[in-house]
Write a structure and sequence with these properties.
Structural class: alpha/beta
Radius of gyration: 21 Å
CATH superfamily of the largest domain: Alpha/Beta hydrolase fold, catalytic domain
CATH topology of the largest domain: Rossmann fold
Strand content: 5-15%
Strand order of the largest sheet: 1-2-4-3-5-6-7-8-9
Order of helices and strands: HEEEHEHEHEHHHHHHEHEHE
Oligomer: single chain
Number of domains: 2
Number of strands: 9
């Protein structure tokens, strides 16, 4: 999944906000200085290889606050080389995750995972391992905070739930933490609906992706075949029906976001399908009982749309290895945009329901960002959420007041 991109607040604005945060009730974290990207302190980093074959990076600040921030990156296409995805290290407005973390006084560690594509299980194992490596090289940190984005957000929620002995808390951003099965079906539903409204445009089926398509999708197939069709004004009604039935977010005032949303969701069907089938041991998408609504003719849609059964082995793998429970014993903060077309905002609602059912609300907080886009946060959004997590970890209690809703 792509790097975080958005317009960033001014550095002066960040400094003012961080000074204000220490005055809010329930926020015991001292103000920290945030530097602009061209004056960040020189990094003192070490790169190496883990036993799994994953690449790791450890960076130390000039003055360490005793805490270790561990970064879980997002989805990387399975046809890319394994390694730390440097494009996902870039923060909105400039600077990198490791630079900003160390300038805030945190030690920093990350791993490229031993596998690309669906990397939840190897990702958790490699993140735990990099904490062990850090301890051997730098000593035992007072606290270990896990921060993850997109697929890494799902990894963060799972790891905090399952490994409270390793991680003292987590910030999970724009991830499928509510239901992994729901996320799989979201991608699958979109593709079968796309094929209904635009038949024969992407052969052969939503669950059978020609391997060669991964190498030509972005450069040729999407730009030359798909995009001209979905941006043709004659097909505007079909596009609107597709987005409505699939419940895919876009911004009505910005018509280009319709094409952007279609592009992003189709990308995951093309790149993730074969890899997920291989790693889950079978085909995980099922829509036999799904009733689709919101088109111009729902009866005709539900009669003719392609139907698929999931392989039980894949469903079992998801249930045991990829689903959160809400059974928190360490603090978790989530951060999500309301208009996320890739990982729908309902993932937050699904996770919150789990936390409520588990009676763990004192350990959970959510920051809603009213905006369009996948992981489209400003530096301000991220720093507020991180500050909230640190306050919860240090106090081991839920803050007495939510931070103000961020709207833009």
């Amino acid at each position: 999944m792509q790097k975080l991109t958005s317009s960033a607040p001014t550095v002066r604005g960040l400094l003012c906000l961080l000074c204000l945060l220490v005055l809010l009730p329930g926020q015991p974290v001292a103000a920290q200085t945030v530097y602009p990207s061209n004056t960040l302190s020189p990094l003192a980093c070490e790169d190496g290889l883990q036993a799994s074959g994953a690449a790791y990076r450890i960076c130390m600040p000039g003055s360490w606050n005793g805490k270790l921030l561990v970064y879980a990156h997002g989805y990387v296409a399975p046809n890319r080389p394994v390694g730390i995805p440097e494009d996902q290290m870039i923060l909105p407005g400039g600077g990198t995750v490791d630079q900003v973390a160390t300038d805030l006084g945190y030690a920093f560690a990350t791993t490229g995972y031993s596998s690309n594509g669906l990397a939840v299980q190897p990702g958790i194992a490699d993140l735990i391992d990099v904490v062990t490596i850090f301890r051997g090289l730098k000593g035992t940190p007072q606290k270990v905070l896990l921060v993850g984005v997109s697929e890494g957000g799902g990894i963060t929620a799972l790891a905090v739930e399952r490994h409270p002995d390793i991680f003292d808390g987590g910030l999970a951003m724009c991830g499928p933490y509510g239901s992994f099965a729901d996320q799989v079906n979201y991608f699958g539903d979109f593709r079968v609906l796309f094929d209904h409204f635009f038949p024969n445009l992407i052969p052969p089926t939503p669950v059978d992706i020609p391997p060669a398509l991964l190498d030509t999708w972005q450069s040729t197939v999407y730009s030359n075949t798909v995009k001209p069709v979905i941006t043709d004004p004659a097909n505007a009604s079909k596009v609107d029906q597709l987005l409505a039935v699939a419940k895919v977010a876009f911004t009505s005032a910005v018509t280009t976001t319709k094409e952007q949303s279609i592009d992003q969701v189709l990308w995951y069907n093309i790149y993730a399908t074969n890899d997920a089938k291989a790693k889950l041991g079978g085909q995980p998408f099922a829509n036999q009982a799904r009733v689709y609504i919101g088109s111009g003719d729902d009866t005709q849609l539900n009669t003719t749309v392609q139907r698929f059964n999931a392989d039980q082995i894949a469903l079992d793998a998801i249930a045991t290895g990829y689903e959160t429970t809400g059974q928190l014993t360490r603090p978790l903060v989530t951060l999500h945009t309301t208009g996320d077309p890739v990982v729908p905002y309902r993932q937050v609602e699904l996770y919150a329901s789990k936390v409520i059912s588990a009676n763990r609300t004192a350990l959970y907080a959510h920051n809603k960002v009213i905006a369009y886009g996948h992981c489209q946060f400003t530096s301000l959004d991220i720093l507020i959420a991180l500050n909230q997590l640190v306050g919860m970890v240090d106090s081991q209690q839920f803050p007495r007041a939510y931070l103000p809703l961020i709207s833009r």
